[in-house]
Design goal:
With 571 residues, the chain is of the alpha+beta class. Helix content is 55%, strand content 17%. It contains 19 helices and 17 strands. Strands 2-1-4-5-6-7 form a six-stranded antiparallel beta sheet, covered by helices on one side. The protein has a six-stranded mixed beta sheet with strand order 8-14-15-3-16-17. It is elongated and about 145 Å long.
Length: 571
């Protein structure tokens, strides 16, 4: 429940603190005292849009802080999933600050959270029902949600939602495959052509292009290679004069050997020279091999063959990849696609079979949901009619219509099953049941909403329910009965009501007075929890207006005593 609310710099609320209690809490005050500011501040805690117009004139920022306790397992479970820290033995604190520059800071238990997270958590903490909120009950789209809340079928709906999501996914897969199959014939021809063309190029060696380029370069430089390779061979190893680098090294080694017994380091020199000689001979022989063109019968003809082959490779590269490896990969990928297309009809049959099985499972669950809804709709309709009778609407007929959505004799599944749910009502005797959108009277709509809300309040996710001026358009005994209904709701959920009704206020367990005073030359809202005497004074003011008389005080006292008696009778 909501334990504590602190409002700072919002409109006329410079610094307001309210300590709420469980049970039935009522807020009263003169028009313009700041009751709407309290509701606006609570809405900010629930994630509503923060307008800089709400910030008190002359201030840079506004802050709303709320403390909650005795929270639901659903909320703790959401916090676990969202990574939001909490301590079950301590208060759950939401703080929201917004500045004139538009900056918005939201923290839960001192931990920053997103607006989406705040709205989700807020929906589990507080429900606010005001004049605008009545439209929720008119909107047909919400009727199925209200019925399901009463029916207590969350687990069944979750199970259905899983199947429905799988069904939609399978449906999308089928549509994608059908679209793909439309292009199958043309794609098959293209893939077969690409594979055949690449295979005809016989690109089996990924290094073939590099080798061909090297060989082409060698053939074009044959004369130069032969001439210079011969020079290198003669200089390093053998020539007609008998003087080469290797011969000179041999003579050097021979001379060093003759003095090797004089200095031990000479042996290392000899070893190094022998190593140099071996490397030179190896280089000479390798260079000689470069000049060997004996295996090429006709170099010019071989050059033509190489150029033709490189042309084939380059043509393939322009179409299928910059390297031979990429071309081979393209071919393999084309083969995989070809296989996929060829198996398209088989895949389509499998997908359709899977879809049919999923549809059957989803339909079975939807049928179970439908039966529960039909039963719950009848039960809830009777309970609402009883409440409406109590709320001085004896001639009102109320019925929840649950109809299967069908097309060509088959049920049409949607995200909530296959049901169409709508609240039907007739407010006057002799009238036919009609849609709730036909209701004009705000007072009638408020009582219908209250009748529904009081019936399902014990199943509401939120543990605090706020009613903002639910007494609009009603008075006298009807207001008193509305108060009794609110008191009944307060048995299962903390209930807060902003009201102008003395009858409703007289039934409160905790009565808060909202006043606007002039402090330091500025209007400021203040909130005070009234004691018994102060409560009588406030109710007398509501009854009598400005100049109060003893009779009005007596009437207020009598009303409170009467309300206590009525509560005892209706418990």
């Amino acid at each position: 429940m909501l334990d504590y609310l602190h409002i700072e710099n919002i409109a006329v609320a410079k610094n307001v603190e309210i300590e709420f209690n469980d049970g039935f809490n009522v807020l009263t005050g003169e028009t313009g005292a700041g009751k709407s500011v309290i509701i606006d501040s609570i809405n900010l805690i629930l994630g509503s849009k923060a307008s800089k117009e709400l910030i008190r004139h002359g201030e840079e920022r506004a802050t709303v802080t709320a403390f909650f306790s005795s929270l639901s397992d659903d909320l703790y479970g959401y916090c676990d999933d969202a990574g939001i820290d909490y301590d079950k033995d301590d208060s759950f604190v939401i703080k929201r600050t917004f500045n004139l520059d538009g900056k918005n800071i939201v923290k839960i238990n001192s931990q920053p959270v997103t607006m989406a997270q705040l709205r989700q958590i807020g929906s589990m903490l507080i429900n606010i029902h005001g004049q605008n909120e009545n439209q929720t009950f008119i909107n047909k789209a919400n009727h199925i949600l209200i019925l399901d809340e009463y029916s207590n079928i969350k687990n069944l709906l979750d199970e259905y939602s899983e199947y429905y999501a799988k069904l939609n996914k399978k449906k999308a897969e089928i549509a994608s495959l059908l679209e793909k199959n439309k292009q199958t014939e043309a794609m098959l021809d293209l893939l077969n052509y690409q594979i055949k063309e690449i295979e005809s190029a016989k690109l089996n060696d990924i290094d073939e292009e590099e080798k061909l380029v090297q060989l082409r370069t060698k053939l074009k430089s044959a004369e130069k290679i032969i001439k210079n390779s011969s020079n290198v061979y003669k200089l390093l190893y053998k020539n007609e004069s008998g003087i080469s680098a290797s011969v000179l090294i041999d003579k050097t080694i021979d001379s060093l050997s003759k003095i090797s017994d004089i200095d031990s380091s000479i042996e290392d020199m000899i070893l190094n020279l022998k190593s140099f000689r071996s490397e030179m001979i190896d280089i000479a022989e390798r260079v000689a091999d470069l000049a060997n063109f004996d295996d090429i019968e006709d170099p010019d003809k071989q050059l033509d063959i190489i150029e033709d082959r490189l042309t084939v490779i380059q043509r393939m590269q322009k179409k299928y990849g910059s390297t031979i490896q990429e071309i081979i990969d393209f071919k393999n990928d084309a083969r995989d696609k070809l296989k996929s297309f060829e198996n398209g009809e088989i895949q389509l049959d499998v997908l359709k079979k899977d879809y049919k099985e999923l549809h059957k499972e989803a339909s079975n669950i939807a049928e179970e949901i439908h039966k529960i809804r039909v039963s719950s709709a009848k039960e809830l309709s009777n309970l609402v009619k009883e409440s409406l009778l109590f709320l001085d609407m004896p001639k009102v007929q109320f019925e929840i219509k649950v109809v299967k959505n069908e097309r060509d004799g088959a049920a049409v599944l949607s995200s909530k099953g296959f049901d169409d749910v709508e609240f039907m009502i007739a407010t006057n005797a002799g009238e036919n049941l009609t849609q709730m959108t036909k209701i004009v009277s705000g007072g009638e709509l408020a009582r219908i909403m209250l009748a529904i809300k009081s019936t399902i309040s014990h199943k509401n996710r939120a543990q605090t329910i706020i009613f903002d001026e639910i007494d609009t358009g009603v008075s006298g005994s009807t207001s008193q009965k509305i108060g009794i209904k609110l008191s009944a709701i307060a048995k299962s959920s903390q209930t807060i009501c902003v009201t102008h009704s003395a009858q409703i206020a007289s039934l409160s367990e905790n009565h808060f007075l909202i006043v606007k005073n002039i402090l330091d030359g500025r209007a400021q809202t203040q909130v005070k929890l009234l004691n018994e005497k102060e409560k009588i004074d406030e109710i007398a003011r509501i009854i009598g207006g400005i100049d109060l008389t003893d009779k009005q005080y007596d009437a207020a006292n009598d009303l409170i005593n009467q309300s206590k008696a009525l509560l005892s009778e209706n418990q």
